[in-house]
Amino acid sequence: MTGPVLVTGAAGLIGTVLRRGLPEAGWALRSLDVVPVPEPRPGEEHVVADITDLSAMVEAARGAGALVHLAGIASESTWPAIAHTNIEGTYCALEAARRAGVGRVVLASSNHATGYTPRPDGGLLREVDAPPRPDTYYGVSKVTMEALGSLYADRYGLDVVCLRIGSAFPEPTTTRQLSTWLSPGDTVRLVDAALRAPSPGFAVVWGVSANTRTWWDLTAARALGYRPADDAEVYAEALVAAHGEPDLADPVHSRVGGEFTTAAFDSGNFDA
Ligand code: 15L
Fold it and tell me: Which family is this sequence assigned to (predicted)?
């Protein structure tokens, strides 16, 4: 692969993690956001553009070796906001990649694409056993992201890897996240694997750390080359002391999307 990796949403939470970690893994970066990225590193290219501006996105994608699409609203919002930023934005990212000849796209999907999927009675949940079952309009935008990725892989031959990210935060802060945490270090390892995997075609994989309590099967992610190194269990004692042992009958723990499946996450409770 020649050319830098174009990262959209580079000023966000995950973007900031990748801006530090991907160069350490050997990748040159072109960081794109709707606001200037703070403190560009030496050698880091930076672009200010709106992901829903297709011509700006095509310009930004020219000469890139791959595209990592993170930009978007990261939780529930109104339908117009989700439809514009997340759905139109993902179309523009993929279409820009196609027009600019970028052969590989890594998409930041989410567990909320399949949020209403129940926890299996036993064993681990594979992606193939968790088809689209969105828990929010945000989840619908991630289902659409995966569908657009599939289309661009089949119709135009792009390699498209969709990462169904769990909870990508500096550390877990709830007992659900003892299962769903994706550590900053593993975020870099997962994206690095998605960029390096030889000819992945179209792939959908969970994005979580090697958490003792995880119930999402990492076999497919490992097949891409992902080797998670972190485990949320080191935070378990403190979190369980503060919040109690998880009640596995509670939807927060019995469904993939956790609290996003509860009434509190009705779109009517959110402003754009
Ligand atoms: C997501 O997709 C969100 O972007 C993030 O804010 C968390 O809510 C995360 O999922 C999660 O499920 O913990």
Answer: Belongs to the NAD(P)-dependent epimerase/dehydratase family.
Q: Which of 82, 90, 116, 167 to mutate to test the pocket of ligand 1 (most atoms within 8 A of CB)?
A: 167
Q: How far is the CA of 262 from the centre of ligand 1 (A)?
A: 14
* Each residue's pLDDT tens digit, 11-26: 999 999 999 999 999 9
**Pocket of ligand 1, candidates 260, 261, 262, 270: which has the most ligand atoms within 8 Å of its Cβ, to mutate?**
260
- Ligand 1 is surrounded, with C-beta below 6 A, by 74-75, 110-112, 165-167, 180, 258
Q: Which residues are catalytic?
A: 138
Atom number in ligand 1 closest to CA 177: 13
- pLDDT-derived band at 272 (thresholds 50, 70, 90) equals confident
Q: Please, are residues 161 and 194 in contact by the beta-carbon 8 Å criterion?
A: yes
pTM over 0.90: yes
Residue 159: which residues within 8 A CB-CB, separation 6 or more?
A: 103, 104, 105, 153, 199, 200, 201, 202
* Closest by CA position to 235, among listed 158, 165, 174, 147: 174
CB contact at 8 A, 142 and 123: no
User: What is the identity of the amino acid at 111?
Assistant: N
Q: What is the pLDDT of residues 205-230, one digit of tens each?
A: 999 999 999 999 999 999 999 999 99
Contact 203, 162 (CB under 8 A): yes
